[in-house]
Amino acid sequence: MKCVQRIGRGATPRRQAGATLLVAMIFLALITLIVTSSIKAVNVNTKLVGNMQTQKEADAAALQAIEKTISSDFTALPTPATLTIDNGQAVAAYTVSVPAPVCTGIKAIKLSELDAANADDQPCYASGAAQNTGIVGSGASGNSLCSNSNWEVNATATPPASEPAPTVHQGIAVRVAVGAAC
Q1: DSSP states of 12-40 as a string?
Q2: N or C: which end of the chain has fewer CB within 10 A?
């Protein structure tokens, strides 16, 4: 006798067994793409932050070299210098190139810019009856007996195993007697 299986009403044959696998593979591929792009974004951001930190450290090293230069009497004989600045970490030090400072000009200090209570400003006032107090109309020019020589000091720091960072520029004024030359 032959056995016949009847499918009852409302029952459907099981023909969707491979569709679930296909949908699962598509979602797995999408999730893999999302994770891969996230990892790439994190790597780019990490490199960006590292480069910014190196740039800031190079700027700080250049400023420290400029401070070292202007703390000496650099106006007497301006000479170029190459300094090694340690950033206090376990990595190698920065090499900083400081060209010779350049005098950009001399500017007379006005009496109105001086402070009579400051001991450094007192030699700049005229003495005796001809003293010019900085009051408008009290003197011909209003200039004191002192001038500022204006200097430009530059420094370029090179991080370890890297290209040089941009040059840092610093202007400074040094008090000199009237009539002094650069």
Answers
A1: -----TTHHHHHHHHHHHHHHHHHHHHHH
A2: N
Residue 38 clears pLDDT 80, i.e. is over it? yes
59 exposed, middle or buried (CB, 10 Å; 0-12, 13-18, 19+)?
middle
Helix (H, G, I), strand (E, B) or coil at 11: coil
Residue 176 DSSP one-character state: E
Q: Is the pLDDT of residue 24 over 50?
A: yes
DSSP, res 51: H
Query: If residue 53 lies in a helix (H) or strand (E), which one and from where to where?
Result: helix 19-70
How, if at all, do strands 168-177 and 143-158 pair? antiparallel
DSSP state for residue 76 in the 8-state scheme = T
Beta strand 81-85 with 102-110 is unpaired
The pLDDT score that the predictor gives to residue 132 is 47
As beta bridge partners, residue 85 has 94
Read out DSSP for 84-133? EE--SSSSPPEEEEEPPPEEEEEEEEEGGG--TT-TTTGGGSPPGGG---
List the structure tokens of 91.
């990595």
pTM over 0.70: no
Share of the chain above pLDDT 70, in %: 80
